[in-house]
Amino acid sequence: MFVSRSLIKLQRYGLIKVCRNLCNQSSTTSTGNVDLKLENLEEKPAFPGSRSKWTSQLEFIRSENYEGIPVYRVMDREGKIIEPDGDPNLGQEMITKLYKGMTLLNTMDRVLYESQRQGRISFYMTSYGEEGTHFGSSAALRSDDLIFGQYREAGVLMWRGFTLDQFMSQCYGNIDDLGKGRQMPVHYGSKDLNFVTISSTLATQMPQAVGASYALKRQGSGRIVICYFGEGASSEGDAHAALNFAATLDCPIIFFCRNNGYAISTPTREQYRGDGIAGRGPGYGMATLRVDGNDTLAVYKATAAARRICLEESKPVLIEAMTYRIGHHSTSDDSTAYRSVDEVRFWHQKDHPISRLRKYMEQRSWWNDELEKDWKEESKRQVMQAFVAAEKKIKPNVKEMFTDVYDEMPPHLTEQYESLMEHLKHYGEHYPLKKFNGMGDS
Ligand SMILES: Cc1ncc(C[n+]2csc(CCOP(=O)(O)OP(=O)(O)O)c2C)c(N)n1
Ligand SMILES: [Mg+2]
């Protein structure tokens, strides 16, 4: 403060050169952030980093006085393109692939949800209603872009090529699970597909994703990172740290918020007071877009444009995709306790990403009832085949719980491992060891 006032006085007396020298000596931030030209100093505040004008109005900024950031969309609810040049013209093949992916995910969700209800797997999370955010965004990425997910992004991984067998094996924790049965169901990961393994502790993926994007930038790799998260996770401290680091380090990362209206039972009206998640973007100095997450084409265009900003400007982008979680939060939740059936029905019947894309296809004669019927049967057959195969497969050896976690097994894990082996030596007959790889004779 003292230095700033002294500088201004010096400048008033025309001692600009002296001032500049003093400034260079006293504070590098001042010289870096403030335009110290005499004529500007009277007009504008000289605070480091300031872009403001002076005002004599004592007026608080109140977000309720501003309209919400608009929601970008390409199609209306009837699948009609709104602006003539709005259609990304992805072509019949690509659109059909998107539609088949979205509906396949839907079918897989139904089977695995029921499987949990029947006690065959321990846990599951569906993506009902959010299929457009998954497929629209992942289709706009390059296959070597790195993905950090939260947990409700199975469609993103499906688009990358994760097979039904791989999904099922993970949920069953069988011998073909890439995670060797060490994670709860839906905690997928694939090194080959550049999809970082899910850790469902909220928002942990966000600072990690920023670190990864910074590393990709330093490598000059031409790759970017996309980080998915829910509007609930956005309230975590890690989310704010991640957004600010990404902005100040100019990281090539897309923050993709799936705003599905709920964080388990907490509705968005209790989650934040400002203009959603997009409303925070300008505060971080980040290019920001709010998009209709149920409009797959709009999500595609938004993500493709964000990717270009990341690469061409080496800057982060925040996308808030507005959607609705039609299913329960997870198999541990019963959403009828906190929302009405009518509310859910509205989104299911009037604003569903799958039916909207289908209408778009039907208007172009790319899809009809017969194709739908055939695909429904075929997709169900594929899902059931993978489901039956996964259930039959044996589990990994219990040793896998301990190995391959650290580079070398640390003493405390060695101790636990030996203790478990000793236990199984005496009481193995009480466990279904035959179902575990290489343990049938234990
Ligand atoms: C740090 C942390 N706190 C709480 C939880 C419990 N939890 C799991 S999911 C969830 C809600 C997250 O909501 P949102 O981010 O909106 O994602 P959505 O489930 O809606 O996709 C909560 C509170 C957690 N996993 N981690
Ligand atoms: Mg949510």
How many domains, as an integer? Answer: 3
The counted number of beta strands is 8
| Whole-number mean pLDDT | 92
Radius of gyration: 27 Å
The molecules bound to the chains, other than polymers, are:
thiamine diphosphate, magnesium ion
Look at the helices and sheets and give the structural class.
alpha/beta
> Which CATH architecture of the largest domain would you pick?
3-Layer(aba) Sandwich
At the fourth level of CATH, the homologous superfamily of the largest domain is: Thiamin diphosphate (ThDP)-binding fold, Pyr/PP domains
- Give the overall form: globular
Percent helix among the residues?
Answer: 40-55%
Percent of residues in β-strands: 5-15%
The side-by-side strand order for the widest beta sheet comes to: 2-1-3-4-8-7
Query: Biggest β-sheet: count, sense, barrel?
Result: 6 strands, parallel
GO molecular function: branched-chain 2-oxo acid dehydrogenase activity; metal ion binding
GO biological process, one term: branched-chain amino acid catabolic process
Domain Dehydrogenase E1 component: 100-398
Cofactor: thiamine diphosphate
Can you walk me through this structure?
With 442 residues, the chain is α/β, with parallel strands linked by helices. The protein has helices at 2-12, 16-26, 28-33, 38-43, 91-117, 131-138, 154-160, 164-172, 205-219, 237-248, 268-271, 281-284, 296-313, 341-350, 353-363, 369-392, 411-427, and strands at 146-148, 195-196, 225-230, 253-259, 262-263, 266-267, 287-292, 317-322. It has three domains: 1-41, no CATH class; 84-392, Rossmann fold (3-Layer(aba) Sandwich), CATH 3.40.50.970; 398-435, no CATH class. Helix 1 (2-12) packs antiparallel against helix 2 (16-26), helix 5 packs antiparallel against helix 15 (353-363) and helix 5 (91-117) packs across helix 16. The chain is globular. Magnesium ion binds at residues 230-232, 260, 262-263. Its EC number is 1.2.4.4. This is 2-oxoisovalerate dehydrogenase subunit alpha. GO terms for molecular function: branched-chain 2-oxo acid dehydrogenase activity; metal ion binding. InterPro entries: Alpha-ketoacid_DH_E1_comp (IPR050771), DH_E1 (IPR001017), THDP-binding (IPR029061).
